[in-house]
Design goal:
The protein has eleven helices and four strands. With 272 residues, it is mainly alpha-helical. It has two domains: 7-114, no CATH class; 130-270, no CATH class. The chain has a four-stranded mixed beta sheet with strand order 2-1-3-4. Helix 7 (130-152) packs parallel to helix 9 (190-214) and helix 9 (190-214) packs antiparallel against helix 10. The longest helix is centred in the last third of the chain and has 25 residues, at 190-214. The mean pLDDT is 87. This is DUF393 domain-containing protein.
Length: 272
């Protein structure tokens, strides 16, 4: 694998995801051992060359010899294309570049709610983008609703099977209800909290997928599906507590979040 020598990638040290993939570039030899540094500790030599705020939003790749700087998806294409030249034509295909740049922005502007920062924040924060946050909330709500709709079919006999749009209403209702609570309680944290909350729901939905897939090849008793659902719901509750603490929020959001779900359970079981 060919190493991209003479380049330094500036990653977000407070983002576990950024830290992981930039470290992988070095570990696999795609960048040399000095090929990564946090933008929070940006080298003095790079300061005049790098758009500091843009580097917080889109990972920057600096050519330490010429001063050339690439950002975002173009940085990743440069590294991967150098290691795997076979992808060169694809990385020059404009429709693919446009599509991947949108996908990159979708992930980058939501990275702090996908995987919360594990380090003390320095104040060097990526720009908040409401469009991409709303897109993230919409994507996760629809995805969770879709998965839960299919999972509900495996609980027949234990949980009443609702109308096709029931789970979608549950997900959208969750965003609306908790959105009102957080707006009244701590409006400055509204979009961070909602993003984290839907990440938790999306993660739980993904944990249900193996059961849905296995059920296509073998019979799984509804009670087993219910017990698995309750187990992942318990994990969701614990993760909600952890993330609200990271956001500096008290127990109010966790209590209202739990009340919302208990109320839904009552409605499903007794008023379906």
């Amino acid at each position: 694998m060919k190493t991209l020598a003479g380049y330094t990638i500036l990653y977000d040290a407070e983002c576990p995801m950024c830290n992981l993939y930039s470290k992988a570039f070095v570990a696999t030899g795609m960048l040399d051992k000095q090929g990564r540094t946090p933008y929070q500790q940006m080298p003095e030599a790079a300061c005049p060359l790098v758009d500091r705020q843009r580097a917080m939003n889109e990972i920057a790749l600096v050519n330490t010899q010429t001063g050339e700087v690439k950002y975002g998806i173009h940085s990743l294409f440069k590294i991967i294309g150098n290691a795997f030249p076979v992808f060169g034509p694809l990385f020059k295909f404009r429709p693919f570049i446009w599509l991947m740049s949108k996908f990159y922005a979708f992930i980058s502007y939501n990275r702090r709610v996908i995987i919360p920062a594990y380090a003390e924040e320095t104040g060097l924060q990526p720009t908040f983008n409401l469009t991409y946050r709303l897109a993230y909330l919409l994507f996760t709500s629809l995805s969770v609703g879709f998965i839960l709709t299919h999972y509900a079919g495996h609980l027949t006999g234990l949980v009443p099977l609702g109308r096709p749009y029931r789970e979608y209403m549950i997900c959208s209702g969750q965003v609306l209800f908790q959105g009102i609570v957080i707006t009244l309680y701590r409006p400055a944290k509204r979009w961070d909290y909602l993003g984290n909350m839907m990440t938790i729901s999306f993660g739980v939905a993904l944990l249900l997928l193996p059961v849905i897939i296995m059920a296509k090849f073998m019979a799984i008793a509804p009670i087993v599906c219910l017990l698995w659902f309750l187990a992942v719901a318990g994990l969701m509750f614990l993760e909600h507590i952890r993330r609200t603490r990271l956001l500096g929020l008290g127990w109010l959001l966790t209590i209202t979040w739990a009340v919302y779900r208990l109320a839904l359970l009552f409605l499903i079981l007794y008023l379906n």
